[in-house]
Amino acid sequence: MIETRALSVHLTGKPVLHDVSLSLPRGKLTALVGPNGAGKSTLLTALGRLIAPASGEILLDCVPLNTIPAPELALRLSILRQEGAVGPRLTVRDLVSFGRYPHSHGRLGVTDRAEVERAIDRLDLAAFSDRYLDTLSGGQKQRAQIAMVLAQQTDVILLDEPLNNLDLAHARRVMRIARQEAEAGRTVVVVLHDLTVAAAYADHLVALKAGRVAASGRPDQVVTEPVLSDLFDTEVTVAEVGGRRVVLTL
C-alpha cells in the first residue's frame, strides 16, 4: 500500500501539488483523473521517488519512501513515464530485458528470460521482439515500455498514461492486464484521461484539480455528472450503456 500525508510538490520553484493525503490500497487499481495540469503525472512521479516532495511524506507499506535503498525499491516499485527515453537501436527484447536488471544485474538467468518472454507475449509483441525500436509505431513502442515495467515484477506498478498511442484493441488489452495485476494483489496506479475507461476498470478513482484532491472514491461516487462537470469546468453527461458508465461532453 502507498500512502501520502500532506504531500506538496514544487517544480521549478512553483507549487504543483498541495497537501495531498491519499491511501492507495494493495490489490486495487486506482485511476488518477483530472484536467490537464492538475498534477496527475507529478503525483505519479513523486510516488515513484523521481521527484522529492517540498513537504509531507510518502509511505510504502508504512515505511517512508525516501528511506528505502534504491536497489530494494527497484524490486518493489516500477513506473512507466510519459517521457520514457530509450535508445533507438535497441530491440524490443533488449528493452523489455531492462526490466529484469534489479533481479539479474545484467546477467539474465532462465527465470529472467522467461519473464521477458512472458511480458512480450502479454503485450502482443512476439512478432516484433527482434525489431529495433526506431522501426516501430508509437503504439508498439508504448507497449514495449509497458512490457518492460511488467517484466520488473514489482508489488507496486505506476503507469502514466499507458493508453497513449494505443488502438482500441490494445488499450483494452493493457487495461485488462492492469486489472489482472491488481487482482494478483499488487498496488496499481494509472493516470487516465478516458473517464469511461477509468469507470470500467478502476476500483478507486482520485480526481485532481489545480494540484489538490477534488474527489476520491469508487467509480459510482466520482464518475457522476456533478463531480465531473465541476472537475472539468464543462457540462458532462454520464450515461449507462450495457451496465457501464459512459462519459460524454456536449
From TrEMBL:
Recorded GO terms, molecular function? ATP binding; ATP hydrolysis activity
RNA-binding as a keyword of this entry, yes or no, is: no
Major location (coarse): membrane
Q: What is this protein called?
A: ABC transporter ATP-binding protein
Q: How does it sit in the membrane?
A: Peripheral membrane protein
> Which keywords does the record carry?
ATP-binding, Cell membrane, Ion transport, Iron, Iron transport, Membrane, Nucleotide-binding, Transport
Q: Does the keyword Ribosomal protein apply?
A: no
Localization recorded for this chain is: Cell membrane
All copies of domain ABC transporter, residue ranges:
2-235
Show the GO cellular component annotation of the record. plasma membrane
Q: Which example biological process does GO assign this protein?
A: iron ion transport
Q: Can you tell me which family this protein belongs to?
A: Belongs to the ABC transporter superfamily.
